[in-house]
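Quiz preparation item.
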């Protein structure tokens, strides 16, 4: 099964619908499976006094603005969603959005969205999880800032509200933008798989593309990665996002890794068969012998090409009697001996 790749546009449109449409085009050009945005009513999810995270202050270049003021500028209207869904269809890429409040869940459900993500910040929001659980389809759970116990609780809430584990994908994640390499802890992804008996994936906030590629090699079934038109743009998530060429490189690298993983059976591959005779060796005579001589190891040498008798037969050859004269540097042949 191919890894599902979600190009996370998030709020990197900066509230500009034309920018959002260009993000869709970039994700489609990179051949991601989905492009994902964020759907919310800012005033319903953020208190007026809530402060911005340090990374949000740094990336938005504004220490005075509140979190609510910042996020309000990034809301997408119902009409915006309709435009973006239509643009995704025109560009042959799946549309997704993450809902952060009940009204937004209803809106996305009304558009027929069947894959819903529970973002890291909502993993303890049991009312929202229960609402999402009742919608048929796949559920993605992101686990940034979470303990294993909190992950298990969220899975249990989903299950009790109607989502089976077979319809869940749990993403290992670190919610720092960008995530320091020493905090990635990629092995925790498979710990989640073992302890929770669920499909696993990885939501990445590191700089670069190597960690999501490694996650695929380790068994991730879904990769989510933020991207932007330009990392220099002002906004909370741009600095930790890929630019279009990097997104394309990540998708191509993941597809290469999928092919490289293979089926796990060790065999001679079609592409290397022709090299066996070139790279392996055959048994040659190291000196001339006459009929009646008994072959010793000193009489033989192992040299390329490998189109003669294999050195793996050496124990069967030593001790044989030569039945006709043979010349130095000639191939050893079974017809030479008795």
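Solution:
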């Amino acid at each position: 099964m191919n890894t599902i790749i979600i190009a996370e546009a998030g709020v990197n449109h900066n509230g500009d619908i034309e920018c959002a449409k260009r993000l869709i085009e970039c994700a489609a050009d990179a051949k991601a499976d989905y492009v994902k945005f964020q759907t919310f009513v800012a005033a319903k999810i953020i208190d007026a006094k809530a402060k911005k995270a340090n990374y949000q202050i740094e990336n938005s270049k504004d220490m005075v603005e509140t979190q609510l003021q910042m996020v309000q500028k990034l809301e997408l209207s119902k009409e915006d969603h309709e435009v973006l869904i239509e643009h995704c269809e025109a560009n042959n890429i799946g549309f997704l959005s993450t809902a952060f409040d009940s009204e937004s869940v209803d809106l996305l459900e009304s558009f027929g969205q069947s894959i819903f993500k529970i973002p890291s910040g909502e993993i303890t929001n049991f009312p929202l999880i229960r609402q999402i659980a009742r919608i048929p389809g796949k559920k993605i759970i992101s686990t940034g800032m979470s303990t294993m116990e909190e992950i298990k609780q969220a899975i249990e809430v989903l299950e009790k509200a109607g989502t089976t584990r077979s319809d869940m994908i749990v993403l290992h994640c670190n919610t720092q933008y960008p995530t320091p390499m020493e905090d990635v802890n990629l092995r925790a992804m498979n710990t989640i798989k073992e302890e929770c008996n669920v499909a696993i994936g990885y939501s990445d906030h590191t700089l670069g593309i190597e960690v999501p590629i490694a996650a695929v090699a380790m068994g991730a079934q879904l990769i989510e990665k933020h991207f932007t038109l330009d990392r220099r743009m002002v906004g909370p998530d741009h600095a930790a996002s890929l630019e279009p060429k990097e997104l394309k490189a990540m998708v191509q690298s993941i597809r290469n890794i999928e092919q490289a993983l293979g089926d796990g059976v060790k065999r001679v591959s079609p592409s290397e068969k022709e090299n066996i005779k070139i790279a392996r060796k055959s048994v040659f005579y190291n000196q001339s012998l006459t009929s009646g001589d008994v072959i010793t190891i000193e009489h033989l040498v192992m040299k390329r090409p490998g189109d003669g008798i294999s050195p793996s037969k050496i124990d069967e050859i030593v001790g044989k009697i030569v039945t006709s004269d043979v010349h130095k540097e000639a191939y050893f042949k079974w017809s030479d001996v008795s």
